[in-house]
What does this fold into?
Amino acid sequence: MTEYGLYIGGKWIKSDSGKTFPTANPATGETLATFQVGTQKDVDKAIEAAEKALPRWKKFPPPKRGEILLRAAAIMRARKDELGKLVTQEMGKILAEGKGDVQEAIDFLEYISGEGRRMLGETTPSELPNKLCLTLRQPIGVVGCITPWNFPMAVPCWKLGAALITGNTIVYKPATLTPLCAATLAEILEQAGLPAGVLNMVTGPAEVVGDAIVQHLSIRAVSFTGSVAAGKDIYAKAARMLKRVGLELGGKNPQIVMDDARMDLALEGVLFGAFGTAGQRCTATSRLIAQEKVYDELLEKLLVRTKGLKVGNPLDPAVDVGPVASAEQENKVLKYIQIGIEEGAKILCGGRKQTGLQYDKGFFIEPTIFEARHGMRITKEEIFGPVLSVVKVRTYEEAVKVANDVEYGLSSSIYTSNVNTAFRAMEDLEAGVTYINAPTIGAEVHLPFGGVKNTGNGAREAGTEAIHEFTEIKSVFIDFSGKLQKAQITE
Ligand code: UN1
It folds into this structure.
């Protein structure tokens, strides 16, 4: 069994705690490796290493930083099958999606490496003669990146890639469920040529390691993806030190199907959106909002297809839905199923933990569909598992009202053949991401990603916004008149 250290200052070292924790395969229970239980002292060490590496990394030309990221992407591409398998083994998504996670990481590293040759500022004239004004994008300094377990390659690459290309050094705390993916990523970045101390990884409990990162004065920005409760806590603590914070905190994403939609497309869309990654995407479809004429037929077809989904070991190519990520997740999802039943929602399929030989060592839940009334807790709270609530509506207006009547606003989707309805929905749906005739999952990396309301704090990652999360803007005034010129003062 491999025991991994903390990655600090380019070295793999033991934690101050002297304790380790295992990372395990959620389908089989098999332990994959052990990791250090990091402490506040470890975080202090990691921050020191990041501070030490900062001056040189800041001066490292951004296109050269980009070359390192491109090399990392090339290594990942060459190892894609193996890394995809690792994602599947550690997190539980099916193999095709494990490779998709790696591909998304590659895509982003390639995309963001180009920013090394852009990172554009502005040049503008001055109100005074012989004077020029421009803006520079500068690194923030030492930043904290705290990542979730559901995309253990892609989301870390969004954060680390954007922080690195812009010249920051990093203290990185990966989710405790997926440290092996994180450590592998750190090794790849090191192999690609990232200098020691630029990226430092501390594993361990969020309440200790995450909190120490957020509370340390030297960390100037924090990028976090995870739960609303943790996000609010981070935001409040960071606010006291006026830190920059980027938050992405989940969703309750609707797929609306209008009477004029193409039934076959809408059906494929909701199946993929709701049960892909066993529903464990922030962008997962957790509500199907269908107009009344199409409702019965859509539901009937959906039930047939959902009952046909094969649940099992995600390494098996015949399997459609893998396990949920942990016992804790399993309990949460089963608790919500219970809540749905108690609220009077009708279970149309699934609803149970899968048992029997191939399931007993893992966390398998049957793909579950509830016929629900909007307003029930299962239609408003994030479940993060293979559970879909179906709600019937009469009109477009009602569909939008229901879709928007939740505290989240990450992804959203509408299926319609009416171009006017599509364009109206583009404006009306309260979400950071809207899909027309496509499922709620599968955002591409060159567009900004994030959401409204409780999904975040207005920050966006990936895409054209990625570099904003990790840079300060400086305005520069260059006076080449050879005399004192005064702006605004006329006499
Ligand atoms: C997440 O679940 O936090 O849009 C990220 C998607 C993926 C990323 C999801 N590209 O579903």
Summary: The first helix runs from residue 40 to 59. The chain is about 35% helix and 20% strand.
